[in-house]
Automatic annotation (TrEMBL):
Span of the signal peptide: 1-18
Entry keywords, A to Z: Signal
Matches recorded under SUPFAM superfamilies: Glycoside hydrolase/deacetylase
Domain (NodB homology) ranges: 179-303
Pfam family, one: Polysacc_deac_1
Gene3D superfamilies xrefs: Glycoside hydrolase/deacetylase (3.20.20.370)
UniProt xrefs under CDD domains: CE4_NodB_like_6s_7s
Organism for this UniProt entry: Pseudomonas migulae
Entry-linked InterPro entries: Glyco_hydro/deAcase_b/a-brl, NODB_dom, Polysacc_deacetylase_ArnD
This protein's name: Polysaccharide deacetylase family protein
C-alpha cells in the first residue's frame, strides 16, 4: 500500500511541474560526491537512470489528450511518442546493466535489474529516504528529468511534421546511440549568431588537451573568412580538428527550396579549401531536414549527423554553468553520445573546459572526430 501511495503522489506531482518550453538543468553541487573515479561515475549514473526511469514510467499514465495539454500542443503523434519511449526504456536498461558492473565496489543504487520488467518494477518503487546521504539531490534531479523528458516528448509529439534530432529517417542518419559505453563526441554548431566566433579559442583548447571535435560550419561563414584571411590561416585554425557542414545559411532545410544547393555548395567549398579537416557530414540546423532526402545524401556521399546531448546554450536559454551541468547530467544518464555545443556563444569557453575537468578522472573517453559516424 505504501508503494501505491507513493506512486500516486508522484503521478500527481508529475502534472505540476514546469511549463512547456522550460529548459532542464540541474545544479550538480546537490550531488554529494565528485566523479573522481569510474566507480563513482557509475554510482551517479545509476541514480540518474533510476530517477529518469521513474519519471518516464509516470508519464505513461497520461492519455494522449492529457499529454498534449501538458506539452502545450493541440495534437500529438502518439506513434512517435511511443517509439521514443521504447527507445528510452531499452537504452536505460542497457545503461543500467553497464552501470551496475561496479556494484561490487560500491553498492549505492544497486538493485535487482535483470530485464525490462524488473527495471520498470524498480522505477515504480524508487524513492530517496529523508535521511539519505543523497536527499539534497533527489528533488532537483526529479525536476530536471521531468523537464528534460517533456523536452524530448514534445519533439517526438511533433515529429515528423516538425523534424528534429529526436528520431532518424533512415540509416544514412547517425547519432550517438551506437557508440560504446562511456564514449562521447564533442560537436560544435555554427548556429544563427554572426558573432562572437569562438572557433580559434576552442580549437586551441582542444589541441592543448589532445582532444578533437567536429565543427559544423556554414558555407557563407567560410567564404567570409576566406575574404579577409588566407587559406593557410584557416587551415591552422582548424588544425587536427574535423569540419562538417551545416548548409550555406543557418535556416531550416525542411522547406527551403534551395536546400540541396545549400548543402552541396558548402560541402564543395570546405572539401576544396580544408581537405585535411573535411568529414562528409551534414548537421541540419535545429535538426530540421526533409524525410525524403536519402537519395540526395547518398549521391553526395554524405551522412546526416544528429546528436543526443544538447547543451541548450543558445542565446537566452541557459547560462554557461547551467549548460555545463545539464550536459554532465545527461552524460551520466545516457553514458555515451554526441554532445552539441554552440560555437557562437561565449559560454562554450566556460562550459566545455568545466565539463572536461569534472570528468577527467571518471573513466569516460572522448571519441576522435575522425572515427565518429563511421
Amino acid at each position: 500500500m505504501r508503494i501505491v501511495f507513493l506512486f500516486s503522489a508522484w503521478l500527481l506531482s508529475f502534472g505540476a511541474l514546469a511549463a512547456p518550453g522550460d529548459v532542464a538543468t540541474l545544479d550538480r553541487s546537490t550531488w554529494p560526491e565528485q566523479l573522481s573515479n569510474p566507480t563513482l561515475f557509475d554510482v551517479a549514473s545509476r541514480a540518474e537512470i533510476l530517477m529518469f526511469a521513474r519519471v518516464l514510467l509516470a508519464s505513461e499514465s497520461l492519455d494522449d489528450a492529457s499529454l498534449a495539454q501538458r506539452l502545450g500542443l493541440r495534437t500529438i503523434n502518439p506513434d512517435a511518442v511511443n517509439r521514443l519511449r521504447q527507445r528510452m526504456w531499452q537504452r536505460l536498461l542497457t545503461n543500467y546493466n553497464f552501470a551496475q558492473q561496479s556494484c561490487d565496489q560500491d553498492a549505492s543504487w544497486c538493485y535487482l535489474v535483470e530485464d525490462m520488467a524488473t527495471l520498470r518494477q524498480q522505477a515504480a518503487k524508487f524513492q530517496v529516504s529523508a535521511d539519505s546521504y543523497y536527499i539534497k539531490w533527489s528533488e532537483p534531479s526529479r525536476l530536471f528529468h521531468a523537464q528534460y523528458l517533456d523536452e524530448q516528448l514534445r519533439k517526438a509529439a511533433l515529429f515528423p511534421q516538425t523534424s528534429s534530432e529526436i528520431d532518424r529517417f533512415g540509416d544514412y542518419e547517425r547519432n550517438g546511440e551506437q557508440m560504446h559505453d562511456r564514449l562521447f563526441l564533442l560537436t560544435f554548431d555554427s548556429a544563427a549568431n554572426a558573432a562572437p566566433d569562438n572557433t580559434a579559442w576552442v580549437t586551441e583548447y582542444l589541441r592543448k588537451a589532445n582532444m578533437t571535435g567536429t565543427f559544423f560550419v556554414l558555407g557563407k561563414d567560410i567564404q567570409a573568412r576566406l575574404s579577409d584571411r588566407s587559406v593557410a590561416n584557416l587551415q591552422a585554425t582548424y588544425s587536427a580538428q574535423c569540419i562538417g557542414v551545416q548548409g550555406w545559411e543557418f535556416r531550416s532545410h525542411s522547406y527551403w527550396q534551395d536546400w540541396q544547393d545549400s548543402v552541396r555548395r558548402s560541402a564543395e567549398l570546405v572539401k576544396s579549401k580544408l581537405p585535411e579537416n573535411y568529414v562528409p557530414l551534414f548537421r541540419p540546423p535545429d535538426g530540421q531536414r526533409r524525410s525524403d532526402a536519402q537519395g540526395f545524401f547518398r549521391s553526395q556521399g554524405l551522412q546526416v549527423a544528429l546528436w543526443d546531448i544538447d547543451a541548450q546554450d543558445g542565446a537566452g536559454k541557459l547560462k554557461a554553468n547551467q549548460s555545463a551541468q545539464r550536459v554532465l547530467t545527461l552524460m551520466l544518464l545516457w553514458r555515451h553520445g554526441v554532445i552539441n555545443f554552440n560555437i557562437k556563444q561565449d559560454g562554450v569557453k566556460t562550459a566545455m573546459p568545466w565539463l572536461v575537468t569534472q570528468t577527467a578522472l571518471s573513466g569516460i573517453g572522448w571519441e576522435d572526430c575522425q572515427d565518429a559516424f563511421r
